[in-house]
Amino acid sequence: MKRFELIDFLKGYSISATVLFHYSKHLQLSNPFEKVMFFGGTGVHIFIVLSGFGLYYSEIKRPLTYKRFIKKRISKIYLPYIFVILLSAFISLFIPAFQNSLYALGGHVFLYKMFDESIIGSYGYPTWFISMMLQFYFAFHIIIWFKSKLRNKPFLVLSILISLSWTIFVVLMHKETERIWNSFFLQYLWEFSLGMAIADKASKDEKIITKGVKQSLLLTIGIASAVLCGVLTLKAGEPGKMFNDFFALTATAFFAVFVFNLKIKPLNKILLFVGKLSTPIYLLHILVILVITNLCSNLDPIYRVLLAVISIVPIAIVYQKMIKAYFKFSKL
User: Which residues lie below 8 Å from residue 14, measured CB to CB, with a gap of 6+?
Assistant: First the structure.
């Protein structure tokens, strides 16, 4: 598949922001630093857009039957994810990284944890994202069917209406604090569909981002969106968080493009490299910080976090090579 440098950069930017956000929680930062680091969690919205882009672009170039598509997703995402869950459960037999439970472990393996709030965050709270992406995989061919019937703009409008309806429903049901509700795939359908619409344009070699957009404009829109996102989050509480996805995505995306356009070669190279490891880094980063925290409890939190930041990339590289070797061997 054709490589898009900006797409690869956005992956690296998003995973870096997400890891720093999760690791900052181990530093017990005081305001306003805590609020600033909280914004790093918005990187997940870019991941959703990129997922819609990647899946639909691949579908355009090489359509797959539902069976082959699910089989491919299982080998690329589900199995590496389950390997990390099993590794987490094994390590937790010796150090208290996570609270072991056969029911929780089964919830990950058999996927029923995405419908049980009590275990959705077991073996690492960021694994909710994997549950949400698996829901998108199961529904992907239905979404493709709707996309085939509509042009990009009507398709996006329909997706926005569906996501907004789901958000309103969750808030009216007073379920906005529960991850199985506030992170169900319909909440993010519009972002996934946005990625699909961008992929549709890219496949036709149409312009995605107009060249010559001023850096000052990117930064201004990014700051304004971040402020609105913060206001909704801080002033409107949990319901506000349900409605701030548009501002969260806009802010983090415009900041990311702003940084990309600065063309700082060392930084761009690092983020492009990290982007290629986004999946293993996401799957492993919580396990890494918890293991280090337990084994190095005598160290100051800042040093534990620095050790985790330094360790996560080489560990992700080794894990990725192990996964590739496993699949290569399994085909023999």
Answer: 43, 44, 46, 47, 50, 252, 256, 278
pTM > 0.70: yes or no: yes
Identify the sign of the CA torsion 191, 194, 198, 203.
Answer: positive
Contact 77, 101 (CB under 8 A): no
With DSSP H G I counted as helix, E B as strand and the rest as coil, what are the percentages for the chain, rounded to 5? Answer: 80, 0, 20
Residues 6+ apart with CB under 8 A from 267: 259
If one counts the domains in the chain, the total is 1
Axis crossing angle, helix 152-172 with helix 189-203, rounded to the nearest 10: 170
pLDDT (tens digit per residue) in 59-116:
999 999 999 999 999 889 999 999 999 999 999 999 999 999 999 999 999 999 999 9
Written as one string, the DSSP assignment of 5-26 is HHHHHHHHHHHHHHHHHHHHTT
SS3 304: helix
Name the helix (H) or strand (E) containing 197: helix 189-203
At 140, give phi and psi (nearest 5°).
-60, -45
Full residue range of the structural domain in which residue 117 is found:
5-330
Tokens in use for 214? 């001023």
CB atoms within 10 A of CB 45: 22
pLDDT single digits (tens) 154-171: 999 999 999 999 999 999
Contact in structure between 122 and 107 (CB atoms under 8 Å): yes
Cα–Cα distance, 49 to 246 (Å, whole number): 12
